[in-house]
Amino acid sequence: MKKVIKTIALFSLPLLVACGGGSKEPVNEAPTTVNLVYPTQNLLCIDNTIAFDWSDATDPNNDNVRYNVEVAKNREFTNELKAQTVNSSQVSITLEKGVAYYWRVTAVDSKGKEGTSSATYAFYTKADGESNIAPFTAELVKPADEDAVDELTVTLEWKGADSNTGDTLTYDVYFGEDATPTTLKEEGISTTSVEATVESGKTYYWKVNTIDNAGAKSIGQIWSFTVK
């Protein structure tokens, strides 16, 4: 009787192992981030029909990739003008003349997995007969928006640019605890950073308005950070 039981147990073992060892589906990974090719950063475009171009993305799972192309009138893309999904790494879009635009591209695989969005580039479509063009809105460097910081003296840093490359830019910096900052911290400065003294446990908001030497002004986006 013992021999019979042992034989059944031995023959059952491979079966149990086979039943429990099913193959797993591979993890779906996102496509790579693309690099923007055209229009280049801070470009002045004479033609308002823009041939957008960017690098191809690759997918770790060899899925087919498509691209979400976003064109907006502000860096935060809340005022989005155009959003298209295309299968190739270029598309032509006709835009208004005399407007500053911002664009980015995100690769998406055939299963809907989005990669990280590309960098955001600014460009300007020149209007007929236009001589002076307003500068682009300031681009955040640090601290990152909605970041938490440890220091009680924080360096606020940004980048400025103008498609009129010969223009001289100055900046008005607004800073405070109000979510819509109205306190002018610095006015008409030519540097692209300022120091701010802060207190633990508080949240601060700031923005930078950019002015060119002809007086044309662009109103900056509001950024925030919290002090630990």
- Major sheet size, sense and barrel closure: 6 strands, mixed
- Find the CATH topology of the largest domain: Immunoglobulin-like
Q: How large is the share of residues in beta strands?
A: 35-45%
- The CATH homologous superfamily of the largest domain is named Immunoglobulins
Task: Enumerate how many helices there are, as a single number.
Answer: 1
Mean pLDDT: 90
Instruction: Compute the number of structural domains.
Output: 2
Architecture (CATH level 2) name of the largest domain: Sandwich
**Low-pLDDT windows of residues:** 1-19
Report the radius of gyration as a whole number of Å.
27 Å
Helicity range? under 10%
Total beta strand runs? 17
* Structural class estimated from helices and strands: mainly beta
Question: How would you describe the overall organization of this protein?
Answer:
This protein has one helix and 17 strands. It is mainly beta and 228 residues long.
How does the SSE layout of this entry go?
Blueprint: H1 2-20, E1 36-38, E2 43-45, E3 49-54, E4 65-72, E5 80-86, E6 90-94, E7 99-109, E8 121-125, E9 139-142, E10 147-149, E11 153-159, E12 170-176, E13 184-189, E14 193-197, E15 203-211, E16 217-218, E17 223-227
Parallel strand pairs: 2-8, 10-17
Antiparallel strand pairs: 1-3, 3-6, 4-5, 4-7, 7-8, 9-11, 11-14, 12-13, 12-15, 15-16, 15-17
